[in-house]
Amino acid sequence: LQHLLSLPMDLCHVPATREKGWYLALMAPNVKGPNYAWLDPSRLYCHPQGLQDCVTDLLQPFQGDPIDMVAGIDAMGFILGAAAAATLRKGFLAIRKAGHLCVRTETQPYTDYSGREKVMEVRTDAISPG
Known about the structure:
Belongs to the purine/pyrimidine phosphoribosyltransferase family. This protein is an alpha+beta fold and 130 residues long. It is 26% helix and 23% strand.
């Protein structure tokens, strides 16, 4: 896996046998330091088959579950969340960083991957009890 992480991006290559998680090797390691996530998934998002297989694997545990909507956290969660929602033919709820929505919202504090305290928000008209 480690040797695959350093290879140049090849959007055409798909392994002859695609083992579960093969696409993880498309992610590039962090070279910018501790203020960034440890892997950059943007190369995975550029690979059509890799992205499709990743979404399929993410949805596998939820096969047969009733799903009304998919939610994803700003901003990396928007990509996989929207792809999962499209695959399921469901709506997508963007969970935003506080202050980005111009409608009524519910807020929740959280700590991001770098340990910084932040607040996220969702629009109140997108979800309902139950």
